[in-house]
Amino acid sequence: GDSVTQMEGPVTLSEEAFLTINCTYTATGYPSLFWYVQYPGEGLQLLLKATKADDKGSNKGFEATYRKETTSFHLEKGSVQVSDSAVYFCALSDFFKDTGKLIFGQGTTLQVKP
Amino acid sequence: EAGVAQSPRYKIIEKRQSVAFWCNPISGHATLYWYQQILGQGPKLLIQFQNNGVVDDSQLPKDRFSAERLKGVDSTLKIQPAKLEDSAVYLCASSLGASANNEQFFGPGTRLTVL
């Protein structure tokens, strides 16, 4: 079945460092891909998404490009801030059924130190 | 605009007891999801409603879990009897419709501890 694999955490960076969180997926067809973020004490919220190959999703300085050839959707940010400390989840949606059901990776914790 | 509301926020019970969780989605959202998030894992869909009908309950352990959305608005998720492995955060989400094009909005979750 469909699945999502994220890099192991936690990831610890200093403020203004470059961030990459790897995400690869296994799916049939052409799923939509998402990054969700969970800040401490808050619910999951959509960070960005891409719906077809080579699309780039972006929001709040974060970017991710849908790479079908490598089945990847890596999250990047050029300069992280302490406020970016959170848990990040990569997810995909079922292409054939398209019910909106999301399949999540295990999450990657990011800690940014001042 | 009010977000997705869930209650209680925390619940501690002993195994074999029963527990129920409540979710109030964003007004006008036809689709409602219940996810289970075990510590260290990503959320896993338990059940999805479109209005008051079930779209997907393939991963719901139906021998102990049940859910309803009788009037197509609020929903309850029940576990009876609870097992130790049910300890998790239960997330409710809602969206305008049942499609990946419709953003899902998540509630804060209910953290369940089964002793």
Q: Give the oligomeric state of the chains in this entry, treating copies of one chain as homo and distinct chains as hetero.
A: heterodimer
Roughly how many Å apart are the termini of chain A? 41 Å
The biggest beta sheet of chain A reads:
6 strands, mixed
- H-E order of chain B: EEEEEEEEEEE
In angstroms, what is the radius of gyration of chain B? 13 Å
Number of strands of chain B: 11
* Chain-averaged pLDDT of chain A: 94
Number of helices, where a helix is a run of at least 4 consecutive DSSP H or I residues of chain B? 0
What is the overall silhouette of chain A?
Answer: globular
The proportion of strand residues of chain B reads: over 45%
**How large is the count of helical segments of chain A?**
0
Helical fraction of chain B equals under 10%
Mean pLDDT of chain B: 94
Name the largest protein-protein interface in this structure. Answer: A-B, 24 and 29 residues
Structural class of chain A: mainly beta
What would you say this structure looks like, in words?
The complex is a heterodimer of chains A (114) and B (115). Chain A is mainly β and 114 residues long. Chain A has strands spanning 3-6, 11-14, 19-21, 23-26, 33-38, 45-50, 56-59, 62-65, 75-77, 86-93, 102-104, 108-113. In chain A, the strands form three sheets. In chain A, strands 2, 5, 6, 10, 11 and 12 form a six-stranded mixed sheet that branches. A four-stranded antiparallel sheet of chain A has the order 3-9-8-7, with no helix packed on it. The radius of gyration of chain A is 14 Å and the shape is globular. Chain A starts with a strand and ends with a strand. The model of chain A has no long low-confidence stretch (mean pLDDT 94). In chain B, the strands form two sheets. In chain B, strands 2, 4, 5, 6, 9, 10 and 11 form a seven-stranded mixed sheet that branches. A four-stranded antiparallel sheet of chain B has the order 1-3-8-7, with no helix packed on it. Chain B is globular. Chain B has strands at 5-7, 10-13, 19-24, 31-37, 44-50, 53-56, 65-68, 75-79, 88-95, 105-106, 110-114. Chain B has 115 residues and is mainly β. In chain B, strand 5 and strand 6 form a beta hairpin. Chain A binds chain B through residues 4, 31-32, 41-46, 51, 89, 91, 93-94, 98-107, and chain B through 3-4, 31, 33, 40-45, 48, 55-56, 91, 93, 95, 97-109.
